[in-house]
């Protein structure tokens, strides 16, 4: 760096300090980060007395760029702290994970649905699975089973009605069983 270029940069930094801080704070999102970056820039100018800068046409832009580079270097070398928004997003992501109880309940429900599907006639089950699990178009399902599209629609409707009916009855039985278990406990406690 040429000595006159360094002097010009240091003088510009001192004279335009608040302006540079405000501009850096907008770019970096924090006044404290901006102040640290500009401080590092000043130290770098004072420390690196060798090397040629060449002609500097806009000292404020040059200092701004140096400070941004210093902030980038600082971010890479320091441990990363989450912002409030990043922390909230992280916690929200944790909440979406199913707990063991939910996993067990889902597995139980899948086994129940598999049992209900097993009660259906083979063709109806195959059509239902092709439509809901494989997501095949009804026209393709009709072609595979040598049926009309209308017949495929009827089979899917009957399969859905069967699944809904059976689930409703089973859920009602679970509810009644839960009530009976509760009343048995309450009755046993009174003795």
Can you put this structure into words, describing what you see?
The protein is mainly alpha-helical. It folds into 2 domains: 77 residues, no CATH class; 86 residues, Arc Repressor Mutant, subunit A (Orthogonal Bundle), CATH 1.10.10.10. The protein is built from 9 helices and no strands. It is elongated. The model has no long low-confidence stretch (mean pLDDT 81).
Supply the key terms:
single chain, 2 domains, Arc Repressor Mutant, subunit A, 191 residues, mainly alpha
Return the CATH architecture of the largest domain: Orthogonal Bundle
CATH topology of the largest domain: Arc Repressor Mutant, subunit A
> Which regions are unreliable across 5 or more consecutive residues at pLDDT < 50?
none
Task: Assign an overall shape.
Answer: elongated
Using DSSP, what is the number of strands?
0
Q: What is the string of SSEs from the N terminus onward? A: HHHHHHHHH
Largest sheet: none
Report a brief summary of the structure:
This protein is mostly helical.
Outline the secondary-structure elements:
Elements: H1 3-15, H2 17-28, H3 31-47, H4 59-77, H5 84-95, H6 100-118, H7 122-132, H8 138-145, H9 149-190
Helix pairs in contact: 1-3, 1-4, 2-3, 2-4, 3-4, 6-9, 7-9, 8-9
């Amino acid at each position: 760096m040429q000595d006159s270029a360094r002097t010009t940069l240091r003088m510009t930094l001192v004279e335009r300090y608040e302006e540079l801080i405000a501009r850096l704070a907008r770019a970096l999102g924090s006044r404290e980060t901006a102040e640290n970056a500009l401080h590092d820039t000043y130290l770098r100018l004072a420390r690196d007395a060798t090397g040629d800068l060449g002609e500097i046409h806009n000292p404020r832009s040059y200092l701004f760029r140096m400070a941004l580079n210093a902030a980038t270097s600082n971010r890479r070398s320091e441990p990363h702290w989450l912002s409030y928004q990043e922390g909230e997003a992280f916690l929200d992501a944790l909440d979406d994970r199913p707990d063991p109880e939910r996993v067990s309940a889902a597995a139980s429900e899948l086994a129940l649905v598999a049992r209900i599907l097993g009660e259906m006639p083979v063709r109806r089950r195959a059509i239902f699975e092709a439509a809901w699990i494989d997501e095949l178009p009804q026209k393709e399902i009709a072609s595979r089973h040598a049926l009309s599209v209308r017949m495929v629609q009827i089979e899917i409707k009957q399969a859905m009605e069967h699944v809904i009916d059976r689930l409703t009855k089973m859920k009602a039985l679970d509810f009644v069983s839960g009530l009976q278990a509760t009343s048995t406990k309450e009755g046993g406690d009174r003795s």
